[in-house]
Amino acid sequence: LGDVYKRQPQFAPSISAFQLVSRTFTENGLPTSLLGNVSVSQGSAGQLTGATARIDSGFVASEDTLRGGTSQGLSSSFDSSTGTLSISGIASASAYASALGSVVYSNGNDSPSTNQRSVSFSVEDSKRSSNSLSVTLSVVSVNDSPRIRSTTTAPIEFRQGGTAISLFSGAAISDPDHSSLGAATAMIDTRFDPSQDLSLIHI
């Protein structure tokens, strides 16, 4: 009888996490880590060749960013049109576990969408892709203060007996959260003399 060769079982890499918890990003806050205690196992093809982190739902192209995944010689790139962070490089399962654990979400918008996001993670080798892990992300918006800026920086001079003068010409006022404001205040902060400084009026 000829030699009998037993075919080795073929299987895909896998990814798991000890505990998947919902994450929260707060406007103007630090980037939010998405995965904790992630574990990656190689498939029958051996070392891994890539991984993906993708915002599957709730993605806002003008706001959402994923970063990280560059540990132990791996490289990464983020596609802002699809919300996909691609990690590449031939490396061990532990290297990819570390890379995925470093992925963070950030949002630089001053009035971000509060729609819930879902972010999925997977790895692959030269032949197969793994299962997918999904993390839920909440985005919390905060009420930003209005901002006022003067385009005039030259000192203003009032002469005794003169007519009223404008104090704040060329002002630019903005509020990232509201299109209209409720009130404004003008106050003499220093060296106020009630016997001389008669009034502040709108002219």
What does this structure look like?
By secondary structure, this protein is mainly beta. 4% of the residues lie in helices and 34% in strands. The protein has one helix spanning 93-101; strands at residues 14-17, 23-26, 32-33, 38-41, 48-57, 64-67, 75-79, 84-91, 104-107, 117-124, 133-140, 147-150, 171-174. The strands form four sheets. The protein has a six-stranded mixed β-sheet, covered by helices on one side. A hairpin with a 4-residue loop joins strand 7 (75-79) and strand 8. The mean pLDDT is 86.
Relevant terms:
4% helix, three-stranded antiparallel β-sheet, 203 residues, mainly beta, 1 helix, single chain, six-stranded mixed β-sheet, rod-shaped
Give the SSE map.
Blueprint: E1 14-17, E2 23-26, E3 32-33, E4 38-41, E5 48-57, E6 64-67, E7 75-79, E8 84-91, H1 93-101, E9 104-107, E10 117-124, E11 133-140, E12 147-150, E13 171-174
Parallel strand pairs: 2-11
Antiparallel strand pairs: 1-4, 3-9, 5-8, 5-10, 6-9, 7-8, 10-11, 12-13
